[in-house]
Predict the 3D structure of the following.
Amino acid sequence: MTVSIETAATCNLNRLSEIEKECFQSEAFTKQQIASLLTDYNSISLVATEKNQIVGFIIGSICFDRSSLTGHILTIDVLPAHRRKGTGTRLISEMERLFREKSVKACRLEVREDNLPALKLYRKFRYDEISKLRNYYGSAHGIYLRKVLT
C-alpha cells in the first residue's frame, strides 16, 4: 500500500496528539503544543496517510539563524505498525524539499541517544552529530544533529 504525504490541518489535531502520545509517552508534545505548531506561520506540518488513515506525521519550523534560514524538525512520528516501511523516509524527504523550496540552508533536530532506529534514519539522510545534550530528555541524554541542505 502506498503512503501519501499531505499538509496537516487543525482538523487532524486529535489524531496527531494520539500518535504523539503513542510514540513518545511522557516526552510527547501536549495537544496544546501541537495545536500551536499547526497554526504557527513558521511551521510546516505534514501527515502520512494510508487508506485515508494517518499513520505518521512530521512538524518542522523555520527560523532565522545568524545570516540564514534554518529548519528545525521538532517531531517525527510513525505508528509502530508502519515503521520500517519507508514512511519516515518519505516524511523527512518531503520536509527537506519544502525547506529547500523556502531557501532554508540547514536543518537541525534533537534525538534521544538511545533511539537507535531514529539515529539510523537520520544518518541515512547524512545528518551530522554536532553535540551531546546532557539530560535533554529528563534523565536521558540527547544528540543534536545538523545537516546542510544543498
